[in-house]
TrEMBL record:
Coiled coil: none annotated. It is found in: Cytoplasm; Nucleus. It comes from Cryptococcus neoformans Tu259-1. The keyword Cytoplasm applies. Pfam families: HEAT_EZ, Importin_rep_4, TPR_IPO5. One of its GO terms (biological process) is protein import into nucleus. GO terms for cellular component: cytoplasm; nucleus. Keywords: Cytoplasm, Nucleus, Protein transport, Repeat, Transport. This is Karyopherin/importin that interacts with the nuclear pore complex. Its main location: cytoplasm. The keyword Nucleus applies. Residues 146-275 form the IPO4/5-like TPR repeats domain.
Length: 910
């Protein structure tokens, strides 16, 4: 088969692809596709020859592009190319060409891998060969010529040749199992990987570390991993010590994956592993101006901060993964040394992250932008550490550091000390509740600290403790917290004043009136004074906190209602504003006003609700920008008004529901919607806002359906059709779930309004769609939710289920039960070969199965219950053996619940 006649065409295509002009690229793409449909064998072969062997004398970029095109085109179904012309189902060129052609292409690729001397070309060849091997494996067609070449290359005198076998093992970890007649024993595979870890070339060593990761995660069985894994991990850390700093981060990343998936491989070598990792966490001296405080026994690194972060971040992640997944091993290592040093190192990182100059922080007006840039890794790491190990070890160690840091002159040390307590609050709940008095006494001086950022962080800590300690702060220290917060509401620095209000929000969310009754007036006055500052972010926070205070105070807030409602009316009376921050303030005013109305009740709010609704309608009609922040506030505000007014909200539905239907009907572009479930994350940033709005719209419709019931009838039909359609939404799990929650509410509307249900077809359509989606979904969590929606819907109508649909429900239920039963049987068989991380993953999956079985049981029981009703008995809803079949399915549920893996101390119950 000659390919010379195609060289000109392929050369022109490659040149057009490399060029920057868009039109020639599109024409070249169309031309290449036509060629691939007309001459698939010749096109694949010539791409391989150009890329792997340099046929045609093309430049390096052209050759690399040829390999990319070969990798992409060979296995992609093409319109107009059919394996069976009768079926007209598009086929991939690889599946259409003859086996002899495939063999020629593979010979070309293997020859290129064996002989190519250019390093860049070798990486392209490796990626192409790995993909080819992977696709062959999927088709159960081993790529037999490749493994001998790779084994030969491991002994090559050229490092760029020795690099390739490990590149391919990283990309296709089962290569030496799937593409050989006799799989290489695990011990021999381990020897090959160890040779790579000890290679004279640093590039080969790093690539071998990547291969170790992939092989241990995907290329061996559980028993083989236990046999060779721990030793390979130990050798990887020995390799790590001898790498130049520029490559350390690249070598650490594979170990991050291994630590999170198979932590047991690390525990037998904790001494060399932690001795390698902990020093990497010490911040550098460059660019940080570290204070003369000794956070840890490790000296600072001599590198830039960015270079250090590239190394420190993965090292931190490995240690945290081991603490989360092997807490006893990590806490016991050298009598808690890892925990003690880790806390000091994370505090040092927090200090090193901030510059000494706070003027920009004080003067900033855009808090959202600053929040995006705030360095959170140290705080998040301390939180994870405390959640993993608990407060018994963490709190005393941190407290020692905090006491010392609070005495330092550098404000960053005092800041880090307080943020450390904030970070560990949730994980050290019991210990903090017990020792809260001592902790507050230790931190109390920070309320009057000379540096505003320290005062700010003290308020942050109060807010965090208010939220995390389950009311302990409110119950025992309400006076102290409120007095300090009121004082800091008058702070000379606006950032501190605003944050005092934010801290109060957390306090009031967990407070009862008896905690704050005597402080209610000064708190409200202080927040109103804050609003008068004319600083937008402070005004926004003042309104948010006032809304929270009103919600907590309820009727006690009545004396302040009028002034604050009038303030909200004033803010909302200018709908034509264009500034984004001002629009957000209007949104906050809507939130505040409606929550205020809910707090004081319908009697006081009723008259104002009409005026407020008119203002909201005016604003709603002014919104033209898709990303106007008032849109989301409007949805919540209308829901709040509805909950306040109840049935009296009916006149406003006409202004609310049409917009919600429009928002809930949003669909991304066709290419996005066609990606399927496995690509639903591809919705990307451009569509995230619209999808979030769509979900909120469904949630609001659910509120109106349940609140308004029969009065929602005018919108029943379009809402029901939309909900049933979105049960199969391909681009968002949250949309599917929101649609499933809405269906029972709409049936309640239908039942109360005595319309729509008169037509049997309507009900049949609802339940038919629910059953159809149950049959099609492979997501066990969503299946459980669909069964719940089904049960709730059947409970609402309280009518017998059509016999035909009962049969379909049973059929789908049996399919679900058989799938879960088989999955659990497989797990039981595999359990002896699993390590603990595998077991944790499978136990999580099993918990989802338990929820699904429970919801399926409830659905079957509900079918029996309505079938046993008088109407059901008259209609014979459970006749002809249906009752026995339903009971049989229930018995299956009970038996399957007894099967499966067992967690620590767990017994299986029916």
């Amino acid at each position: 088969m000659s390919t010379e006649h195609l060289l000109g065409d392929i050369g022109a295509v490659l040149t057009a692809f490399i060029a920057s002009e868009d039109h020639p690229r599109r024409e070249a793409e169309a031309h290449l596709q036509r060629l691939a449909v007309e001459q698939p064998a010749e096109v694949l072969l010539v791409l391989a020859q150009v890329g792997a062997q340099g046929v045609g004398g093309f430049q390096l970029d052209h050759r690399l592009l040829a390999l990319i095109l070969l990798k992409r085109m060979a296995f992609k179904p093409l319109e107009g190319l059919f394996l069976n012309p009768q079926s007209q189902k598009p086929a991939a060129p690889f599946d259409v060409v003859r086996e002899t052609t495939r063999g020629r292409i593979e010979t070309v690729i293997c020859a290129g891998i064996k002989d190519e001397m250019d390093v860049r070309m070798r990486k392209g060849l490796g990626a192409c060969a790995a993909n080819w091997a992977h696709e062959c494996s999927i088709r159960h067609r081993p790529l037999l010529p490749l493994p001998p070449v790779l084994l030969e290359l491991t002994a090559s005198p050229h490092p760029f040749h020795r690099f390739t076998p490990f590149q391919l093992l990283d990309l296709t970890p089962t290569l030496l199992v799937d593409s050989v007649r006799d799989p290489i024993p695990a011990e021999q595979l381990a020897q090959m990987l160890q040779a790579g870890l000890n290679d004279p070339s640093v590039d080969v060593r790093v690539e071998a570390m990547k291969a170790v990761r992939s092989v241990l995660m995907e290329g061996v069985t559980g028993s083989e991993r236990s046999e060779i894994g721990a030793n390979l991990v130990l050798h990887s850390f020995e390799t790590l010590r001898n790498l130049p700093p520029a490559l350390v981060s690249h070598a650490l990343i594979p170990l991050v994956d291994l630590a999170s998936a198979h932590p047991g491989l690390f525990t037998t070598s904790l001494n060399p592993i932690l001795s390698s990792l902990l020093p990497l966490l010490a911040p550098p001296a460059q660019e940080t101006n570290l204070p003369p405080y000794q956070f840890s026994p490790y000296p600072p690194h001599n590198m830039t901060f960015d270079e250090w972060e590239d190394i420190s971040n993965p090292a931190t992640e490995i240690i945290l993964s081991l603490m989360e997944l092997r807490p006893s091993h990590m806490s016991e290592w050298e009598n808690g040394r890892a925990v003690k040093e880790m806390i000091g190192l994370l505090l040092a990182r927090q200090v090193a992250t901030f510059g000494n100059d706070s003027q920009e922080w004080i003067e900033t007006k855009d808090l959202d932008e600053e929040a995006d840039e705030y360095p959170v890794l140290a705080e998040e790491s301390l939180s994870r550490l405390s959640m993993a190990l608990g407060g018994e070890l963490v709190l005393p160690t941190l407290s020692q550091q905090v006491q010392a840091l609070l005495q330092q002159e550098d404000w960053r040390c005092r800041f880090a000390a307080i943020s450390g307590i904030s970070s560990i609050a949730e994980g050290c709940l019991d210990e903090l509740q017990t020792g809260l008095r001592e902790v507050l006494a230790m931190l109390s001086s920070a309320a009057k600290d000379p540096h505003p950022r320290v005062r700010y962080e003290f308020l942050q800590c109060l807010g965090q403790l208010s939220a995390d300690l389950e009311g302990a702060l409110q119950e025992n220290f309400a006076d102290d917290v409120l007095q300090i917060s009121l004082a800091l509401l008058e702070d000379p620095i606006m950032r501190v004043r605003s944050h005092s209000a934010a801290s109060l929000t957390n306090f009031f969310q967990e407070a009862s009136p008896r905690h704050f009754e005597k402080y209610l007036e000064p708190v409200v006055c202080g927040l109103l004074n804050l609003y008068q500052s004319q600083v937008l972010y402070a005004q926004d926070q003042a309104l948010a906190t006032l809304a929270t205070v009103a919600t907590a105070a309820e009727k006690m807030f009545t004396p302040f209602y009028r002034n604050i409602m009038d303030l909200c009316f004033m803010i909302l009376s200018n709908p034509a504003i264009t500034d984004v921050a001002q629009r957000k303030l209007q949104g906050r005013a809507m939130e505040c006003a409606t929550l205020l109305g809910m707090a004081v009740g319908k009697n006081m709010f009723g008259t104002d609700a009409v005026r407020l609704s008119q203002l909201m309608i005016t604003i709603q009609n002014q919104i033209v920008d898709a990303d106007d922040p008032r849109s989301s506030y409007l949805m919540d505000a209308w829901s709040n008004v509805c909950q306040s007014l109840g049935a009296a909200f009916e006149p406003f539905l006409q202004y609310v529901v049409p917009n919600l239907l429009k928002t809930a009907s949003y669909k991304p572009s066709a290419s996005l919607g066609e990606t399927g479930d496995e690509h639903e994350d591809d919705t990307g940033g451009a569509h995230t806002y619209e999808i979030d709005q769509k979900i909120m719209a469904f949630e609001s419709l659910t509120t109106y359906a349940f609140q308004m019931r029969g009065k929602f009838a005018p919108w029943l039909a379009p809402c029901m059709q939309l909900s049933l359609n979105e049960l199969s939404c391909s681009f968002s799990e949250d949309v599917r779930e929101a649609a499933a929650f809405l269906v029972p509410g709409l049936l309640q509307v239908a039942k109360d309004s005595k319309v729509w249900m008169d037509e049997p077809y309507n009900l049949t359509q609802v339940f038919q769609q629910l059953v159809n989606v149950i049959v099609k979904t492979n997501d066990i969590g969503y299946t459980a939710l669909l069964y719940k929606s089904f049960t709730d819907s059947l409970h609402v109508i309280s009518a017998p289920f059509p016999v035909g649909l009962t049969t379909q429900l049973l059929k789908s239920g049996h399919a679900v039960l058989h799938t879960i039963a088989q999955t659990r049987a497989d797990r039981e068989a595999q359990e002896p070969y699993m390590d603990e991380s595998d077991k944790e993953i499978y136990l999580e999956e099993q918990n989802e199965e338990e929820a699904c079985l429970t919801q399926l049981r409830k659905a079957l029981e509900m079918v029996i219950k309505v079938g046993d009703s008088n109407v059901g008995t008259e209609q014979g809803a459970l006749a002809n053996g249906l009752r026995e079949e339903l009971q049989g399915a229930l018995d299956m549920v009970k038996e399957i619940k007894k099967r499966g893996m067992k967690g620590d101390g767990e017994k299986r119950f029916g």
